[in-house]
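Figure S7 source data.
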Amino acid sequence: MASSQPKLTAAILIISETASKDPSTDKCIPALSQVFSDLGSSNWTISTTTIIPDSIPAIQDAVLKACDQGINLIITSGGTGFAVKDVTPEAVGPLIEKQAPGLVHGMLASSLQVTPFAVMSRPVAGVRGSSLILTLPGSPKGAKENLEAVFKLLSHACLQASGGDSRQMHSGGVKKLEKEAGVGGGEKVGGHSHGHGHGHSHGHGHGCGRDHGHGGHHGPKAHTAPEDRPQQSNDPSQGPSRRYRHSPYPMLSVKDALQQIDLHTPSPTTITLPVNESLVGHVLAEDVTAPESVPAFRASIVDGYAVIAGPDAPSTKGTFPVAMISHAQAGEHQKLQPGQIARITTGAPLPPGATSVVMVEDTILVSKTDDGTEEKEVEILTSEIEVGENVREVGSDVQAGDVIMRKGEGISAIGGEFGLLASVGVKQVSVYKNPVVGVLSTGDEIVNHDREGELKRGEVRDTNRPTLLTAIRGSGFEAVDLGIVSDKPGALEQTLRDATRKADVIITSGGVSMGELDLLKPTLERQLGGSIHFGRVAMKPGKPTTFATIPVKSNDGSRIDKVVFSLPGNPASCVVTYHLFVLPALHKLAGVEPKGCARVKVQLDGDVKLDKQRDEFHRAVVKAGADGLLHAVSTGGQRSSRIGSFKGANALLCLPAGEGNIKKGEMVDALLMGKLIGDV
Ligand SMILES: *[C@@H]1O[C@H](CO)[C@@H](O)[C@H](O)[C@H]1NC(C)=O
Ligand SMILES: *[C@@H]1O[C@H](CO)[C@@H](O)[C@H](O)[C@H]1NC(C)=O
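Tokens for the predicted 2-acetamido-2-deoxy-beta-D-glucopyranose complex:
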């Protein structure tokens, strides 16, 4: 490397309660500055020295400030011990994006040669943005020795971290690197003179929630090829340096992903439910036959007079005594005798013996009873009354034993199915059990959306969990809030175990990108014995969508699979993938056909640009136009972090990957997520 290269910058942060009050007590700044001038004065400038008290926010502020300034090397001294006040690793650890355990090892190894007490030090090291951060012990001697132990490698590490071309730097092989760094092949620097992970890809597609500001939203890309990266593992116990740096899961097409979901989502299970309002939203698991006929008795459909008519009966024309009155109410009647009539109201049961009803318009009142309150005699003006006229026969609506609903039909809130079941006296039915869906968010940076107070640096309000909970309920299913789970491995495992007892389907969002904190997949596969059926889908947005099943023992001892979806950490992708992938699984479990959102043809009301590589699901408002067509208007920016672009969207346009635009006026497929809107 040419000596004309600009100097690397370093910041020295002394973490000491005492020195922060009285800077003259500090001996570390001179000791550390000495190392720089002795070993690398031509390469380094110390751009800042600061003394900070033992406080996590103060330490984080200072480190973040130095990172923002693009300082190449940030070293802290102090606060790495076991005393209560020692919080440096706790402050610096969360800020590190790429761990450098080799440097930690190197520092500890050198200290151990001096004193066994070195095991009591808890250093952390790693990269944030383009800065390398090291935490040294607080004693001037210890700090100096630790820094010296790794110093020769730091300029190389910092150049890489700041985005130097690693291929060019490596073109001479490891030997050349070692020579440049002034370390021989046999010289031991912490065991690994050549650490893992030379790739320095910026941003692993974290999306909004987890994007730390470098890499940007559009097209984050890795700068190394998969074959250039060391073999990695998804075993969390192997530590961060061995974790996957690229996804080991093959990229599936949307169609194949949906097929996997259909294949691995369990078939619906059957339960018996009483017929009451809670039945709405279920699908019948068997044909339902009517236990009773409707109507259950012969009833009049008009107000008038029940008579005995027919070819064998005397003419109905003439004046008759009114023998009884039948109102629409329960009760027994005596038999109507030939020559008698009965006053009857609409819906009332015909007296035994009556064949027909004459409507009141065809009659004249002849006389009243003595007290004047009731009819005594009525004249019927027609002889053309037929048997059964104006009578609703028993079972004329539904016959007992008729199949009134079929297996697979849904009980909706609008279709009158509940009323039909109720009308024939069905007391209980066999239906498919609706799935219960648990929703959790993962990430130490995630806070409840309604948490009081301003966000601390790095914190993100949880939009995905409330959004998903409402989307699930909006689809008619029960949703259980499982809260926010810390990125610590044990926490996720425990929450998922509990969740398999409460829910049939578990949706997580957040931990699906290739970050250091991506613990979901290893936890599913190793701790819970689950199977990941896919971990990447060729689509935009939603590429990191993951689908897995976890086998669990059900109450009766049989094995059932619980379904797990891990949706992208950014809110809009999360909603798209819910409708595209989760809903069909919920529908399968609930026995709903057809599964997923309804697919319709819509006409574009504006040009839409295609993505060159990936099929896109583009959020849009679809309205029913006066011309009888469905019209689609894009809801604007489709950047995956923009939940705002979802506002008002009721559909996803299904756009194939390709060059250029689909023009205004052309027809495309759309998936309807919500109610169709009329265009007024
Ligand atoms: C100083 O930088 C040059 C290249 O820029 C490198 O070869 C050399 O090893 C560095 N020296 C130290 C002590 O870091
Ligand atoms: C309806 O049935 C469900 C069982 O499916 C029961 O939990 C609920 O209490 C019932 N509701 C009423 C109003 O009876």
